[in-house]
Design a protein that fits this description.
Blueprint: H1 10-13, E1 14-22, E2 27-35, E3 38-46, E4 49-58, H2 63-73, E5 83-89, E6 93-98, H3 147-160, H4 162-167, E7 171-176, E8 182-188, H5 191-204, E9 214-217, H6 223-231, E10 236-239, H7 245-253, E11 257-260, E12 266-271, E13 290-293
Helix pairs in contact: 2-5, 5-6, 6-7
């Protein structure tokens, strides 16, 4: 397997376009930076045969991590040693070649040919293919988090979003340690792509499961983000937006702490409140919606 995919070049994340800015008083012409969105074709080569497994709209950069994270989250890859070779073509194609002796269930990857950047599971060909059973599960309830740490995560992530600062048009996923230290961050037009890149980097480095990490995302908490977090062994998912009902159900099923509407002074806990230190002795809150407001 190669060392790592090429470093992210800030110039490929944004592009300058001419615009007209209209206000109540003036109309001006200027250039503006917008986020780049391009298709990425992910191919899987098994036993000498190449298969197109996904075409997703994404922001260029960390494409190999995106492909590896996607295949891991889909339950196809379990170990970096399964990967024989990675070819990253310049024409928006990443080909992951597996060891020849591996037997891969390609039915898990049955999707419609195109998946929009805003939707990771809407391209699934069959409902039963949506769920991926995680191989990891936290057994000890770690990590234990202070409310003050949780409340600072969105702003720390926001300050680290260099491309978002220039365009306002990119999602982000970041991994933190229990003290609130940012460990890694990836940006993309698709929130599920940003998380795949984070997971792919950890997969490549042999760091899975991420059993002591906190995942902070810039948008809402969807079913697929919870599933990807669970598959990677991430015990805590924090979002600035709302979770869906299915995301809450899945988080409770897999013992994942799910936080939503996280702000500098409050947040909601939707699943597994025991990891929040202030709530550990509040048994009567079990199964309810928890609002921490200091």
């Amino acid at each position: 397997m190669p060392n790592s995919n090429r470093a992210e070049d800030a110039s490929v994340l944004t592009i300058s376009v001419p615009i007209c800015r209209v206000s109540a008083e003036t109309v001006t012409s200027r250039n503006d930076l917008v986020a780049v969105e391009e298709p990425l074709e992910i191919r899987l080569r098994v036993g000498g045969t190449s298969h197109v497994v996904s075409v997703t709209m994404r922001t260029p950069g960390h494409d190999v991590e995106l492909a590896l994270g996607f295949l891991f989250a889909e339950g196809v890859l379990h170990d970096p040693q399964q990967v024989r070779h990675v070819h990253h073509a310049k024409d928006n194609v990443v080909c992951i070649e597996l060891q020849s002796e591996l037997d891969v269930d390609l039915r898990r990857l049955e999707r419609n040919f195109y998946a929009a950047s805003s939707c990771g599971v809407c391209g699934k060909a069959a409902l039963e293919a949506i769920r991926v059973e995680p191989r990891f599960r936290s057994q000890n309830g770690n990590p234990h988090l202070e409310s003050s740490v949780i409340e600072q995560l969105p702003e720390t992530l926001r300050r680290a979003q260099t491309a978002f600062n220039r365009t306002g048009g990119l999602h982000a996923a970041g991994l933190f340690d229990p003290t609130g230290k940012l460990l890694s961050i990836r940006e993309d037009v698709g929130r599920h792509n940003a998380l795949d890149k984070v997971i792919g980097a950890a997969f490549f480095a042999g760091q899975l499961p991420l059993e002591n990490a906190i995942l902070q995302v810039s948008g809402r908490a969807s079913f697929e983000l919870v599933q990807k977090a669970a598959v990677a062994g991430i015990p805590v998912l924090s979002a600035v937006g709302a979770p869906s009902s299915l995301a809450i159900e899945l988080a409770r099923q897999h013992g994942l702490t799910l936080l939503g509407f996280v702000r500098s002074d409050r947040f909601n806990v939707y699943a597994d409140f025991g990891r929040v230190r202030e709530l550990q002795d509040t048994a009567e809150l079990a199964g309810n919606l928890y609002i921490v407001d200091q």
